[in-house]
Amino acid sequence: MSQYAHPSFLIDTDWLVNHLNEPNIRIIEVDMSPEPYENAHIPGAVFWNIFTDLLLPDLKINLDTSAFERLMSRSGITNDMTVIAYGSDPGTGAWIFWLLKVFGHDNVRVLNGGYQKWKSEDRPLATELSTFPETDYCAKAPDDRLRVLHNEVRSSIDRSDVYDGLRLRVLLDVRTLQEYSGEWFFSQPPKEGERTGHIPGAVHLEHILTLNKDGTFKSFNELKNFFNSYGITADKEVFPYCAIGGRSGYIWFVLKYLLDYPNVRNYDGSWNEWSRLPNVAIER
Fold first, then answer.
1. Catalytic positions, please?
2. pLDDT tens digits, residue range 122-151?
3. Which domain holds residue 47?
4. How many Cα neighbours within 13 Å face the side chain of 221?
5. 48 lies in the same domain as 27
6. Same domain, yes or no, for 190 and 269?
7. pTM, full prediction
């Protein structure tokens, strides 16, 4: 993994299996349902439920500092601990990396390949629930330098950020093609009142195309060439978005920490917010 711009923020399965019992490491498994965790998880991993622990009822990411502090404290995490994040979706760990960085947690690592690779290699698994003594975690206020809000996204649509024929700001839609085209709202056909499509001018690039078949990240050169082929180069400001900000948080990590793009901010409101705003443009 040394070819990446900042390889120290990734760990592989070999590293983790040799550090499972270190007291200053906390492993977090994140998923939409507790069932996969209850069936089998990495030993010592604490479970976070996407819907009840990370999202508000309206599906916005919960960026309340007090709520984040309670979650970290409940998970037995102290401010100086190293957090290892993973999920059944290989991209989940990178989203959690973004979230913890928003609240100023210094030591976060992403398990390259996530649960998929861990299980395929017959690494140790556990079924007992992991519990740790509660801590008194203290978070920083959310770092708005890692986010872009809808007003700036809206103003970007009408701006002529062009120099010598090149766009200098890119809205990057990393959802599935069905979501981008307007066939789906999130993962299914739209219900009454749900608006589908994409933000005008957004470049489409599905997040999963940055991964190998085993769930690990593609190489530095493969990723660089891939993004460059879509006109997404390091000299541009990039605003990724998805449905609720998770997949776009993953792409934020890929661009910023694997490829060293200096100007990337996650539009965490994403389609969940944009599609519900009054008087905003939508393309299909």
1. 242
2. 999 999 999 999 999 999 999 999 999 999
3. 7-142
4. 0
5. yes
6. yes
7. 0.95
